[in-house]
Design a protein that fits this description.
five-stranded mixed sheet; Poly(a)-polymerase, middle domain; Beta Polymerase, domain 2; metal-binding; 3 domains; NT_sf; alpha+beta; single chain; magnesium; transferase; 11 helices
Length: 378
Amino acid sequence: MQNLFRPQTVVKYRRPHVNSGALYTCALCDILLESLAHAFRHIRDKRHKKKAKEKLEQVMLIEIRPPGPQQASAVTTALEAEVAQHGLSDEDVELRRCVVAAMQDLLLSVLPEIRLRLYGSSCTKFGFTDSDVNIDIQYPQHMHQPDVLLLVKETLSMCSLFVDVEADFHARVPVVLCKDRNSGLICKVSAGNENAFQTTAYLAALCTAEPLVLPLVLGLRRWARLCTIDRSEEGGLPPYVFALMVIYFLQQRKVSILPTYLKQEIREFSLSRLSDFHLTRVEDGYLHWAYTPSSKESPQESKSPSATGRVSLTLHGSRPPVEVGLLWVEMLRFYSLEFNMAENVICVRTAVVLSREMKDWPKKRIAVEGEEPFAFVV
């Protein structure tokens, strides 16, 4: 009997109010147990042991005291070392710009109306020295994406500056892949990828305006790489999600570091209309939005006219200084104990915690994948 009720099992048994045939119930697994022998078998079950272990870990994490000043400072030093060792320097970014310029000079000979632009971690500095070079092609309306990418693949294949040219036209975002011979960098070339470009502009502007963002994002990406959960092609998380996780934490923190953007102060805004609000661009420290009423609204609601506006990227006014090492520990605690990854969705547009059902996301989709801020750019 002592083994059954010992604290190490992190489980409590009580006589249930329903099912008169059961003598006990496992409060941890929420199942009924018909006899003492059944209860002993249950605590030896692998699934119960797994839940008991997880419960013990949760209790241990809850009881850990916040880091002191010296501990927070040590974590800050470690994060800064990771940024210095693995992050992109100004020279690394300039090298990537040169790769894009060389590719544009080549492609203009066959596609004179296009323009190449760099996006992704090469612009935000959220990547590593060996991260891919993300390139997007802007093309005129009379051209079509498949034709552009096919011609790009053909042209790159005949040039000695780029090797290992191949295409992945079945990906969510079709791309042409190649390697720059001189630098050894892998290039991923897409066409008309406006959402990713606008998201990059938003993240880059935020990183410039709030210096605390960069070490937290790069630290989280480094941790994800060590845990091998950053490979989206293998079912992991895409790189931009780690930036959204940091931003979301800084928004949800008790003393916020960053603001949310769609709020009740906006006259047209309500949670039921969230899908009708779209972030459009970042300009001069402001995030611009547009509201377009959907045809699904009731006649009374649909009378609201379309509207546009802007909100500041960062919070105005001064705030108490905070150690980046302390924020790192708080962020780990937030996602370990406070944020329900199984049910909720990361959304940096609004302060309201969105459930998976509200976003109509399927159960198999990883809720922490996050909502792209410019997924509905207009």
